[in-house]
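Our working data are protein records whose layout never changes between entries. Instead of coordinates, the fold is spelled out as a row of discrete tokens. Here is such a record, shown just as it appears in the course material:
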Amino acid sequence: MTDPTNNHHRTVEEAYTRAGASSSNLKVDPDRRGDADVLIAAGWSPGMLGGALMRLRGEWDSVAAPRFTQDSSAHQRRSHPEADAVQLLSRLRSLAQVLEAVERWAAAKGLADARTLARTSVCYWLDPTCRTCMGRGNALVPGTPMLGRVCKACGGSRKAREPMGQDGRRMLNMLDDCVSRRNQSMKKRLHASTDRV
């Protein structure tokens, strides 16, 4: 049963992120699905890395998105990229756990430079936006707000090149697979709990 006060259908990942980050009501209500049900389903679902990745993406979305909605010219004048990065990363509580697990996976698979591979792949997984065109797909015409030719760096795809070749692709596939399996397991458990109502 869905929440009648919620006029937009949330994905399992969105529901999990909201329940873990901002829920003040963790009471189990047999007549409707709430945040407590989502957290219970997460607890019963296998795949700890999938859960950690879901939390990390939720943390990233909550701290990174507001930075990109500010006036870009004013932001660029005041911005110190290194300080911004340190502040941003310090607010990602799940990052250390994810990086450690991903690095262990890469080392166990015998992938070269597991530490660098883990860091670059997780960063790309969180934000694959092309930095050259800022995700527009086209370069800006110098001195104007107009878009010009297709971005040479991303070829108009709006995404940066995947890091570290075939090993990077393998890592990104593993990250996506972990989250997908966790989502499917949570959906099944939430569906089963709804059927009992």
Residues 30 and 151 are 53 Å apart (CA to CA). Confidence is low (pLDDT under 50) at residues 1-8, 68-79. The first strand starts at residue 138 and ends at 140. The two ends are 8 Å apart (CA to CA).
